[in-house]
Design brief:
Blueprint: H1 2-6, E1 13-18, H2 21-34, E2 41-44, E3 49-52, E4 57-62, E5 76-79, H3 88-96, E6 106-109, H4 118-127, H5 149-158, H6 161-167, H7 183-186, E7 187-189, E8 199-204, E9 212-218, E10 223-230, H8 235-249, E11 253-257, H9 262-271, E12 276-279, H10 283-298, E13 304-305, H11 308-316, E14 318-321, E15 327-330, H12 338-361
């Protein structure tokens, strides 16, 4: 809409820039669908260009290669999801900002926040009274009249707090890349001996560089009661150790990583009579179990052992936006996430075991 309003000026040169070609194509198609009937302009599909009868032009471009944004003079520039442009500060300073100089053009820079990055710096500049040429605006999702209030309320209940604050309240979080909160508040348990209860086990396999981790969770009270971590041990010994652990705690379900070497190990565990279920890790399935684990910590539904390795892994675990607009979860370079994954698998197994119980009851 802002581009169309600007295009009423004869000869205006307007660009809409987004982080990826996919986003550019999405918004180009949105413009095409919403053009008023009889709008005085020609659509050039191959160039993603709208040429108006008054000489104004709206061009849709990707910031995938900032060098392709150089060398033009613009009256108006929209930079969408600015925080997710790779090397955004460089792309803005060396490529996009110079396009506004010749024609004294204006820019509208919009985005979901992503911590204290270059977009945060631009937003802060707009709040500075000493910068009269810049203005900052902030709108939470709830201010959008096209979104039902119930959707926002449901998101507040269902999403981890950090995601809701960033994605729905448009807040710049100090720990923009941090995934888990309240870790030390939850890490209060001493090691426990076996006791009657309903248990599940999460298993993340490793051998040489990575670690194998077994995480035992009491599903009735949400407490991690045992955690075993080791590496450089043959897989045959690892399955034996898991068997011994299961003899002690008698879990209702063991959820183990299925990718790669996990497949033959699962077959061996099934032959051993363990109640094992495989978990195939994909970008989508990993996001689901990590988000559910973060939500459990936010809601204080989970209690952890005061294990320094577990606490360190949880506090260091990060999320990084991808160029497609999603998030990638991982440990920082040089660190491990084996405890995090075993814990996430155990928490997910808790839900699986509950579903199985309800199905048996019904």
């Amino acid at each position: 809409m802002a581009c169309l309003l600007e295009a009423r000026k004869a000869g205006a040169q307007i660009w809409y820039v987004a982080p990826t070609f996919r986003m550019v194509d999405l918004h180009w198609r949105t413009l095409r669908r919403n053009l008023p009937p009889g709008y005085p302009a020609r659509l050039k599909q191959a160039e993603r260009r709208l040429v108006c009868d008054n000489g104004a032009e709206i061009v849709f471009r990707s910031a995938d290669n900032p060098d392709h944004l150089r060398g033009v003079g613009l009256d108006f520039l929209v930079v969408d999801e600015a925080a997710f442009i790779a090397n955004g500060a460089t792309a803005w300073g060396e490529a996009m900002r110079p396009t506004l100089a010749d024609r004294r053009g204006r820019a509208l820079i919009i985005s979901t926040p992503r911590g204290h990055d270059w977009f945060h710096s631009m937003y802060s500049r707009g709040q500075d009274p000493g910068e009269p040429d810049s203005t900052a605006f902030w709108f939470p999702t709830a201010s959008n009249p096209t979104i039902a209030p119930g959707e926002v309320e449901a998101a507040a209940r269902e999403l981890p707090q950090r995601i809701f604050e960033q994605e729905f309240e448009a807040r710049f979080l100090d720990d923009g890349g941090s995934v888990f909160r309240g870790v030390r508040r939850a890490a209060v348990l001493a090691p426990a001996e076996p006791y009657p209860g309903r248990f599940v086990v999460g298993v993340d396999w490793g051998k040489r560089d990575d670690f194998t981790v077994f995480c035992v969770l009491d599903t009735e009270c949400g407490a991690v009661v045992a955690l075993e971590r080791f590496n450089q041990i043959d897989y045959a010994v690892q399955t034996q150790r898991l068997g011994t652990l299961c003899e002690r705690w008698r879990p209702k379900l063991v959820q183990a990583e299925q990718n790669s070497i996990g497949e033959p190990l699962l077959e061996q565990l099934l032959r051993d009579g363990l109640p094992v279920r495989g978990f195939k890790t994909t970008a989508g399935s990993k996001t689901r179990i990590i988000d559910n684990l973060a939500l459990a910590l936010d809601q204080q539904a989970l209690t952890l052992p005061a294990d320094p390795v577990l606490v360190c892994e949880l506090e260091a675990y990060t999320m990084e936006p991808t160029r497609s607009g999603h998030y990638r979860y991982s440990a920082p370079p040089g660190l491990h996430d084996d405890c995090v994954m075993a814990l996430a698998l155990a928490w997910d197994a808790r839900d699986q075991a509950t579903d199985d119980l309800l199905a048996a009851f019904l």
